[in-house]
Design brief:
This protein has about 170 residues and is mainly beta. The chain contains three helices and eleven strands; from the N terminus they run βββββαβββααβββ.
Length: about 170
Amino acid sequence: MSESNGPRPESCSIEVVNIFTSPGHDFRGRHGMSRETHPVNSVERAECVAGKGLVGDRYYDLDDGHKGQVTFFSEEVVEAARDHFEVPDFCPSAFRRNVLVRGIDLPALVGREFVLGDVRFEGSEECRPCYWMDEALAPGAEEFLAGRGGLRARILRSGTLERGRTTLTW
């Protein structure tokens, strides 16, 4: 956007720490049953398809306009949970979120369009923790994560999301 077209979008430097995909649901639709044990894959990059999700992920092409085509989670929250529950080796893939980031306040992106790399997203809502978090991390995790469970987003423009330092623009 040029200066003559109005103010430039705001931006900040963040880190995409990890990207996770899983071919199946461990918790969804399992109320009253034990969890599943689908693998979670850590990938260097993910193909993000507008209106569909991450190629290879369980939510890919779930339904038209699904508000959780991709989920983001904060590395800072992972570190706080490790400290709080005294589990220094806890793997963040257990949270079942797709993109682990450092350096951005995810709740601030609810209702906003933003760009990471060449992918345009729209923050749709908080990814609220549920009672399964108590099993995935430790008893009390659902309560501990209230208000910081991550961000659900729609993919508005397809592209590739990669791990590493990048600029987030909104």
